[in-house]
Amino acid sequence: MKFAVNIMILPRSSGILLHPTSLPSPYGIGDLGTSAYHFIDFLEKSGQRFWQVLPLTPTGYGNSPYMSFSAIAGNPLLISPELLHKEGLITTDRFERSFPSDVVDFDQVIPYKTELLAHAYSNFLSQDHLHDEFEEFCTTQGDWLKDYALFMAIAHTYPHQSWNQWDKDLAHRDPKALADAQEKLADSIGFHQFQQFYFFRQWHYLRTYANERGIEIIGDIPIYVSHHSADVWANPQNFALDPETKAVALMAGVPPDYFSATGQLWGNPIYNWAYMEQDNFRWWVDRFERLTKLVDWIRIDHFRGFDTYWQVPAGETTAINGEWQEAPGEKFFNLLGEKLGSLPILAEDLGEIRPEVTILREKFGFPGMRVLVFGFGGDSHNPHLPHHYPENAIVYTGTHDNDTVLGWWLKASNHERSRLMDYYGLAQPPLAEDVPWILARSALASVARLCILPLQDVLGLDNSARMNRPGLGAGNWAWRYSQIPETIPPRLLHLTRLYSR
What we know:
Elements: E1 13-17, H1 34-45, E2 50-52, H2 81-86, H3 106-125, H4 131-140, H5 142-157, H6 168-171, H7 175-184, H8 186-212, E3 216-221, H9 230-234, E4 250-254, E5 264-269, H10 273-278, H11 282-292, E6 297-300, E7 308-313, E8 323-326, H12 329-340, E9 345-347, H13 355-363, E10 368-371, E11 393-396, H14 405-410, H15 414-423, H16 435-445, E12 450-454, H17 455-458, H18 488-498
Helix pairs in contact: 4-5, 5-8
């Protein structure tokens, strides 16, 4: 097959992994205001070229950015009240409140920011400010925004229910029921449109500020979407659903492995790939195309799902009784390349994968991932050790899903500790606080074109700063930092220049 893709080559460079919710802010959660601009300034001072973020979409169950109400919409919790105040949309100090500085208390933050944004929307309606621009946004983004805003408005009238438990006419998208809901819920729909308008507006200015300083944004696209989302409700034909109940018929996950005897049962609906292929992958193409307008590069989470995916029948409580199915990944990426011309894609290809996954990734030139803290188990053949890295790869000291480097070292096995000492020629065990920088230096020195360091590792933090603990449904995604010491930028800049990053 002739490929239509112009392969994109990463420059030899480095960057920092930090989700915007982790930024400092007086409003209980990081946002797109002053702290985000200061973080970009930090990246510039440190010689970094990339800022990697997690999915920017609205969070659903467990506050996870990987379980979203939409594959396209922006997270309203990231809207900066400070910037709204500068535009005259927040005109009272009654919203001042005290929040912890090191974590996001979602139970407090969500109702607080929702009330604050509702106040801003009320002021927006009473002013002439940006109304033409708002109407233009609603028109140009109407293909997804209309369904999303209606979905969210209806969802708030059916709290704690999945969309397939709504009134049947709404669940099955009866035209009259939808029209009635649009009329009845017009104010709520407008509020959700307003939030999207300001998220995209603030993000546009922030990304422009970054790009003008030579900083590119790496976004994230989860392989699956939540069943309780505008995407599944508005496009049920794209998913493996029960035709009558609209419940999930085939669930996503991964089979049992070394880490879990029962596998992982994610619960997301599997794609109806046969239909999607007949439809020229329209939903997927639109999803990628829209994300390329928000970020410069896209990391595909669970890239394997474009080659083979594990499907589990509804009713199962573990992932044991599933089976592998093949996905039309090659056809899709070829078509996507024809549509977009080039594919700025990075592939998360961790875990046990079959050779065909690597073949698919390499056919399109997508860099794969290596994680340095994974390298010290086993022996010298471990692919996560730097002497095995290909040039077309991204090396991480760690990811948002695993221990920080310091946290890993504090509980590392004797085998892992001795392997690290031997690998770096250390006669004595290093001080624990030195280990994050030992690994950062090693990652930066490697031949991998891109090196990404989680900010937690740059700051030398332990596992109290972990972003996510897979398998735990609560208590994740909450870490925040207060400040970056002045000693960090020159130290990071020195290593970045030393290793030609």
